């Protein structure tokens, strides 16, 4: 067993039996033997008689004498960068206490300990700062309570989500909400032009057919004349084509229609 392991094991046993600082130093130094015992006798001789050593003082001097400086520096850096991350609060506190022994000058007062206790999870930091605890142990107890409350809250959320009905979300696009034009202007215009031209052609053929309906005196019957006049008016107004400009009945010149009616068929362009 190396020096560090021996020191940690001894401290753990002395804490188990409930020793205070003075008792821990007395029993630990009693366990030293050989060169280690001589080393401690030399330490005591330097100080005035009756000097009472705390456990922290004994542990620091023991490490300085028996633990290599490179190991001390490594452990000190590990303490400065210590964070809780995914560990429980109790695990973090144990590591904090263990590694702080390599940086005694940074935790030798209650205020320094509380400032160094900054590696807890972010959801606990604000609450702990607002508490303004006077002692380090109060801060530790509060952190343990906050962690327990947080775990209970997460468990309640998990149970609630388990019994809530799941909503089915379809991956198919909702075509009913997509905009569709009611008609295609281009297609309708083309169709209207087509059917309009067909109807105009029909009226023209109908007008031409009236040419053979004259009586023996060369005069169209009244009924046939009226039908032909109506066909000319309709053709002039352009009602058969949706795209052609429409004329109102007032805009149609009946005299021009009469003239078109009297124009011989052979002169029509």
UniProtKB/TrEMBL annotation:
Location of region: Disordered: 161-197, 242-269
UniProt xrefs under Pfam families: Retrotrans_gag (PF03732)
InterPro entries: Retrotrans_gag_dom
Domain Retrotransposon gag: 27-118
Highest taxon in the source lineage: Eukaryota
Compositionally skewed regions (Acidic residues) per UniProt: 250-269
Skewed-composition ranges (Low complexity): 183-195
Protein name, UniProt field: Retrotransposon gag domain-containing protein
Lineage per the UniProt record: Eukaryota, Viridiplantae, Streptophyta, Embryophyta, Tracheophyta
